[in-house]
Amino acid sequence: xxxxxxxxxxxxxxxxxxxxxxxxxxxxxxxxxxxxxxxxxxxxxxxxxxxxxxxxxxxxxxxxxxxxxxxxxxxxxxxxxxxxxxxxxxxxxxxxxxxxxxxxxxxxxxxxxxxxxxxxxxxxxxxxxxxxxxxxxxxxxxxxxxxxxxxxxxxxxxxxxxxxxxxxxxxxxxxxxxxxxxxxxxxxxxxxxxxxxxxxxxxxxxxxxxxxxxxxxxxxxxxxxxxxxxxxxxxxxxxxxxxxxxxxxxxxxxxxxxxxxxxxxxxxxxxxxxxxxxxxxxxxxxxxxxxxxxxxxxxxxxxxxxxxxxxxxxxxxxxxxxxxxxxxxxxxxxxxxxxxxxxxxxxxxxxxxxxxxxxxxxxxxxxxxxxxxxxxxxxxxxxxxxxxxxxxxxxxxxxxxxxxxxxxxxxxxxxxxxxxxxxxxxxxxxxxxxxxxx
Length: 438
Hints:
Elements: E1 15-18, E2 24-29, E3 35-42, H1 56-63, H2 75-82, E4 86-93, E5 96-104, H3 108-120, H4 126-145, H5 152-160, H6 175-180, H7 183-193, E6 199-205, H8 209-220, E7 245-251, E8 257-264, H9 272-283, H10 289-297, E9 308-311, E10 318-324, H11 337-354, H12 358-375, H13 379-393, H14 399-407, H15 411-421, E11 428-434
């Protein structure tokens, strides 16, 4: 199949329903296998946290598994596993929190009952809060504070978004905020955001809209909608940072490493698709321009990882993020970071100056088509994408527009995206150096 023949990439039926309490339902039938994915997107993430409450949304990812009115601590997992459930987990991002599981289709009612019980009657108590607060703090130590380069993304966010902006702080949150928060603060957060009118329930697999609606009405129908304060108005940011920023860090890292950020277009807005294609051209895989020039031809950077990718936000401006580790010689020395940094920018700017070839564009689109195919290959991933588009855009069928928008990107679109994203005034650099070199 040629990259221009992929259609929408989402050929399954999509039915959208709603309950009187505001819960939105998205149902996608697929009777090829007797399983069903249940995915619940809450419109709450780190961007909804108030000053002094950073980390609340992520902590609730943990608290929601700690028991509810009819389910004991840890029983959410054991009940689902006892009926053959799998993929039971949750994730938090700036724009949302998601809970998901896949079960045999005969156990759909069990999965919905469990989700409804914790939506309507979460068991919040001081002991559970204290326990999970320490779990999250330990997670922060293990993933951010006590590992090499662990805080790179948090630092980029702080530099890319001004103080007070919803994306300025990290998802994992603040140790001090988590420590001093009271149980009443978490109860208020739960009552503000974990309600049917602030959620999308996506069910994909061996079921039908009538069954899902009946079960959802049975288990979720009695949960009332909740009043919440209107979202704060956030002023739009300028399309570019306005001046380059560079931060030198000396820490306990094994090798020097560079991380980059470039302000980009909000997800779903005109230009965002071209920027995603731009990332694929420059930084995705061994055929990408950054890999080819920095690793193979000039031997400046080490192989491994993506060299540029989009971190796309749905409510405010996004960023493109990149990274590169200098090539090491047999004597232990490495390519000087300024040399690698300038080469990285030169490659990015070459797209703004000279554009891309048709072969590069075709390869990038092939990568994106393959990624989309993998992303939609399971009922679980399809349920997640339906919840995403229903939450962010109010219409799950917009998932069908994603791939066509990417495939419609032209050579000129990619060049214009590079002109927009890669001027020297729109870059942030974090340069990590081993502390032993200080």
